[in-house]
Write a structure and sequence with these properties.
The structure holds two protein chains of two kinds. By secondary structure, chain A is mainly alpha-helical. Chain A is about 65% helix and about 5% strand. Chain B is built from 17 helices and no strands. Chain B is globular, with a radius of gyration of 26 Å. Classes of the chains: A mainly alpha, B mainly alpha.
Chain lengths: ~400, ~375
């Protein structure tokens, strides 16, 4: 950051000018800090008096007590007999479940729509523009309620829609076929992850070699071997089964498969469609920021389209795209707190219930803030690292 | 990926000989310039035609537009086949004005019109003068008189009976009116050389921006009473308003800071050379330039902020979205919430779209 005064104005006398400025600065700082301290002390003393008057004990001891609140839809196993602490953990997991999947889907959808807006096809670019304009100009909460109402208006489980075999859409949510993952399956997936890591190291070495002697080296046979063949071999040798659990309607409910509850599904759709409109604009402006000459030059070199995009256009566009993208990811994560409006139990909703049950307002809100500050810092940290990697290095 | 590879080809297509029927030519260049493009166009046309057709069927052909008062039987008859727009004439006064006394609803209506007139005037460049500030103060005072009453023969209406569109506009307008100066102060604080002021500003901005607005609103509704001396009780609407001002201040501070960074260093040096004091330097030289730099992002922040006021639904304040949600609790009309949401979405859209158009025109003006 640049300072306002790279050069101090000429000094008349050492103590006259310098001393006065310094004193002035000190005065303002003392004043502002004094006001801040006074306000905090005032609020603090009021709070302490109020808490003792209402016989609310402070502290996080309540986290160890039995929560007794139901959480309908959770990734981790939970029962109302568990502690408040565990309920919070389940809430955080639910927040992350929406945020992570939402970020991935919104990025994909947003990129597609941003590219569509630049298409030479008039109809496609117009439709993309309308999509962006409509979704951006309606409050997310309204869109969320709208999707939730639509989910509830879906037919009952018996008359569920079946767009594809094995997929059911009803007022119970979206039910998909799934592959049950246990210990043996995890082992195979772990091998694949390990293969990916090894491949990454080998690839970096290959590129370093190519930098030295200019000979391109093939990457795909190694990738195929490490990421696909090796795990497949492990899977066959250990006899791991990858059976698909097809959902089935029995009585009034579905058995098997993966269920996305209506609340989760509505929240996910709302967050993804809303954020994708903003991401589309970011992607569009990023691509448009690449000077035309770069396209022309790449064309003149006779580069293949995919190579041109990957090696020339995208690296330049990404420099413009990544920083605003970070704030969109943060927004999506923070917006997932709207879940409380439709009863999906994310961390905010759990904290709110806790607050109503125990009266521990300060602690509950402090927990919400701590969780979101941690997530936000994590996302910014990662995106700043990525941004630093792709940023233009100038002199 | 066909779409993106079309960009560099666009001028080539335009250079083709301009012959034949203009309609056919337009279709050829814009929809059927290549085989993949033609396929995309056809698929989109089919989807669009189907979408429009089913919407026309649901929203117009099979829709019920009017029913006798408080009778939803006609709507129930077409449920699933057609829309029930009849719910709008039935409920619009509640949606727009909440539980404000029925006979006095011309007062909030007039307030809304005053707000819209104010917004409109503020967008005209000719009006960007000092008088505009006085006009704002006068109009806001008039709006308070209209809403509260109690003077000039108007009956008093307490704040907990306000609702709907005026509440949304009040939350947004006062949020900006107070959040903007706050944001400017904090932005200046963040760029100040004084370490204590700088760290306080950074702390404020990062804490507010790091957490969801929902948690700030919870704080306002649950913790605020704890903060205040016992017996001192301020209204729920005011509490939410304070949370919204703090929230707006933090976001606007970042936009203003970007503007401050864009002011060339020479301007600061020149102001110092003239011997201007800190406040005069900022008021007369730095801020006018800084704010002019960031007018489009400022308008975008206003839009985001206008939409975010709808979150007060979560703490039970009767803004436009809450009245809409409440209007459909009535069992007779419960099933027709989609229609109500579309109606309210159209209102929000009208405001936000106008602002976004305005922001775009400003950008175009700057581009020239």
């Amino acid at each position: 950051m640049t300072t306002d005064h790279p050069r101090p104005p000429p000094r008349r006398s050492f103590f006259g000018a310098w001393g006065r400025r310094e004193l002035k600065g000190l005065f303002w700082q003392l004043l502002v800090v004094g006001i801040a301290v006074a306000v905090i002390a005032f609020l603090w003393s009021n709070t302490v008096t109020n808490l003792s008057a209402r016989r609310i004990t402070t502290g996080f001891a309540f986290l160890g007590r039995e929560a007794g609140m139901p959480i309908a839809d959770s990734l981790l196993s939970y029962s109302p007999k568990d502690t408040y602490f565990w309920a919070f953990v389940v809430g955080v997991a639910n927040t992350l479940r929406v945020a992570v999947i939402g970020i991935v889907l919104a990025t994909i959808l947003g990129t597609l729509i941003g590219i569509s807006r630049l298409s030479a096809n008039w109809l496609l670019s117009r439709l993309a523009a309308v999509y962006v304009e409509v979704l951006r100009d309606i409050p997310l909460l309204l869109q969320l309620l709208f999707w939730y109402v639509l989910m509830q208006a879906l037919p009952a489980a018996r008359a569920a829609w079946r767009p594809i075999e094995g997929v059911f859409l009803s007022n119970r949510g979206l039910i998909l076929p799934s592959i049950p993952v246990g210990m043996p399956q995890l082992l195979v997936l772990g091998t694949a992850a390990l293969g990916l890591a090894v491949f990454y190291v080998i690839r970096r070495w290959q590129i370093a070699q190519q930098m030295r002697d200019g000979k391109p080296r093939k990457a795909w046979p190694i990738a195929l071997g490490l990421i696909i063949v090796l795990p497949a071999l492990v899977s066959v040798l250990l006899g791991v089964s990858w059976s698909i659990a097809w959902p089935e309607l029995r009585g009034f409910n579905f058995i098997g498969g993966l269920t996305l509850a209506p609340e989760y599904f509505a929240l996910l759709i709302a967050l993804v469609t809303y954020t994708s409109a903003f991401i589309a604009e970011i992607v569009r402006s990023g691509i448009q920021s690449v000077p035309r000459g770069q396209w022309d030059a790449a064309n003149a070199l006779g580069l293949r389209r995919s190579f041109m995009l990957r090696q020339i256009i995208l690296p330049q566009a990404l420099r413009v795209i990544v920083p605003p993208m970070t704030s969109q990811y943060l927004n999506l994560t923070k917006n997932s707190s709207l879940a409380v409006a439709i009863g999906y139990q994310d961390v905010v909703s759990v904290a709110n219930t806790t607050l109503n049950q125990t009266g521990q307002a300060i602690e509950a809100i402090a927990l919400i803030m701590a969780v979101f500050l941690t997530i936000s810092l994590g996302i910014s940290f990662f995106m700043n690292w990525y941004n630093a990697r792709i940023a233009l290095v100038e002199r | 990926m066909t779409a993106i590879t079309d960009i560099p080809d666009a001028p080539r297509a335009a250079r083709r000989p301009q012959t034949g029927n203009p309609v056919l030519r337009w279709l050829r260049t814009n929809l059927f310039s290549s085989i993949p493009n033609a396929i995309i166009s056809l698929v989109l046309l089919a989807v669009l035609a189907r979408g429009i057709l089913s919407f026309v069927q649901w929203g117009i052909a099979n829709a019920v537009w009017l029913t006798p008062a408080n009778d939803s039987s006609a709507c129930r008859a077409v449920r699933g086949l057609g829309a029930c727009w009849a719910i709008i004439p039935e409920k619009y006064r509640f949606i727009l004005f909440g539980t404000y006394p029925f006979d006095e609803q011309w007062r909030p209506a007039l307030s809304v019109l005053l707000f819209i007139a104010l917004f409109y005037l503020s967008t005209r460049r000719v009006w960007w003068r000092r008088e505009l500030i006085y006009l704002w103060i006068g109009a806001l005072a008039l709006i308070s008189v209209l809403m509260w009453g109690g003077v000039l023969g108007l009956s008093f209406v307490s704040q907990d009976r306000w609702g709907g569109l005026p509440v949304t506009l009040i939350l947004a307008t006062f949020g900006l009116a107070f959040g903007f100066p706050l944001g400017i102060l904090v932005a200046l604080g963040r760029r100040s050389k004084l370490p204590a002021i700088r760290s306080l500003s950074v702390l404020y901005v990062e804490l507010i921006r790091g957490v969801p607005l929902v948690s700030l609103l919870f704080m306002a509704s649950v913790m605020f009473p704890l903060f205040m001396p016992s017996g001192f009780n301020i209204d729920k609407l005011l509490r939410a308003q304070i949370a919204i001002i703090l929230f707006a201040g933090a976001y606007l501070a970042e936009v203003v800071r970007a503007g401050l960074q864009a002011v060339p260093r020479g301007q600061y040096e020149a102001a110092d050379a003239l011997g201007l004091s800190y406040w005069r330097k900022n008021r007369l030289i730095i801020l006018p330039q800084a704010i002019r730099h960031v007018i489009p992002p400022l308008v975008n922040t206003f839009i985001a902020f206008f939409k975010d006021t709808s979150l007060v639904l979560i703490i039970g304040i009767f803004d436009l979205l809450t009245t809409a949600k409440t209007a459909i609790i009535d069992p007779a009309w419960q099933q027709f919430s989609v229609e109500v949401y579309i109606f309210v979405a159209a209102i929000y859209f009208a405001f936000c779209f106008a602002m976004s158009r305005y922001s775009r025109s400003l950008e175009a003006m700057r581009g020239r």
